[in-house]
């Protein structure tokens, strides 16, 4: 079957109304997004084991995380706009199946180069998570949009954080390859569930694929709100990824000497930070998106002040990780809520442009980790994170000022 508009819409489904989005379907979409993005983070607690297995340097091993972020960013730009061209259920399921295959390839990789390539490809197709995000938004009413985005994105964030915990535990039991095998199998099951549960929704826009890509790039040139929100997203994600990549080396190093399983359990700390997501979603629905973003940006700075003491204080490290997650999630929810309200017919392309910048920021953050760690250890990571967090606050203040000036 092709990914054209051959499939019939699900009976009774109006893509612009909430009637097609039951609680069960929203839960499935949230779980599915979490599972598919988890593969992009499996390597983080396993870097030391992978480095030893393939004889890689610390900086080379860190490139696995960079490859995942860069592959995801590329997929967001090249694949996500297809949701405006093809039937969305079939597109999502196809990408989910491809990701399962590439995760399996990661598990059987014979050297670092193959693992790097398979990781990038799995990340490239895992943008199916974002297809589900805009899918859920299309099935929701405007007054529920913030909560729907918050629910699905919570699944995505929890998946990324829980992936570290599960990866560490599975690696301890069966080696790092087991992590990818189990991930591929779980993703195959979810793929089948999505095919059975998602309604078929057509979104033809009358544009060719090249025209869609030009339109997506053009939005960054012509839409100042998108540019500022993309900048906020890129800076915050760079700060977030910098921490979660660097903390692996800190916890495995002489200051803590933790095992892979214990390092993986540290991911549970970040999950605690997602409890604030429903609150940020409700505030966004009440028109408080700018305040939510500002609070999130300030929390990033507070987090890095706590994390600066992380090399000698586990409580500071835990508190900083929680605050960092709360701030990051608040910013992300605010950014997406603003963008989804700009033009419903452009949601996939707006999300594509925003999330491409977002994960390019993540790729830059993971690459910066290797540089900062090699030069000054955890101190270097802390300084870099603090600079990124401060830049996020400054950009938010500029965005707020420009928004007020525009309204006046």
TrEMBL record:
Q: Where are the transmembrane segments?
A: 21-42, 54-79, 91-110, 116-139, 148-167, 179-198, 230-252, 258-277, 289-307, 313-332, 353-373, 379-398
Q: Which residues form the Major facilitator superfamily (MFS) profile domain?
A: 25-401
Where mainly found?
membrane
The record, for Pfam families, names: MFS_1 (PF07690)
The UniProt GO MF terms for this protein read: transmembrane transporter activity
Membrane topology term = Multi-pass membrane protein
Any single GO CC term annotated in Swiss-Prot or TrEMBL for this entry: plasma membrane
Cellular localisation: Cell membrane
Q: Name the UniProt key words of this record, in alphabetical order.
A: Membrane, Transmembrane, Transmembrane helix
What superkingdom heads the lineage? Bacteria
Family annotation (PANTHER family): MAJOR FACILITATOR SUPERFAMILY (MFS) PROFILE DOMAIN-CONTAINING PROTEIN (PTHR42910:SF1), TRANSPORTER SCO4007-RELATED (PTHR42910)
> What name does the UniProt record give this protein?
MFS transporter
What is the species of this protein?
Answer: Nocardia flavorosea
